[in-house]
Request: fold
Amino acid sequence: MAKTPYVDQDVCISCNLCADTVPEVFRMNDDNLAEVYDPSGAPEDKIQEAIDVCPVACIHWEE
Ligand code: SF4
Reply:
């Protein structure tokens, strides 16, 4: 089964880095918190880049 990324919005500090890195998957919502709007919008290694760039490590994989 494909892995799906999700954002722990309680921890997100609204830095925008994930949405800048992989805009096909992540965007900022109306509260300026990151959300996954298209989990299959980019390959897993690209999504992993966003996970790695998050300064508070609040993006996770869900299997
Ligand atoms: S990189 Fe992390 S802290 Fe920054 S907006 Fe994305 S989820 Fe939030």
User: Anything to note?
Assistant: The first helix runs from residue 17 to 21. The longest strand covers residues 4-7. The chain has a mean pLDDT of 96.
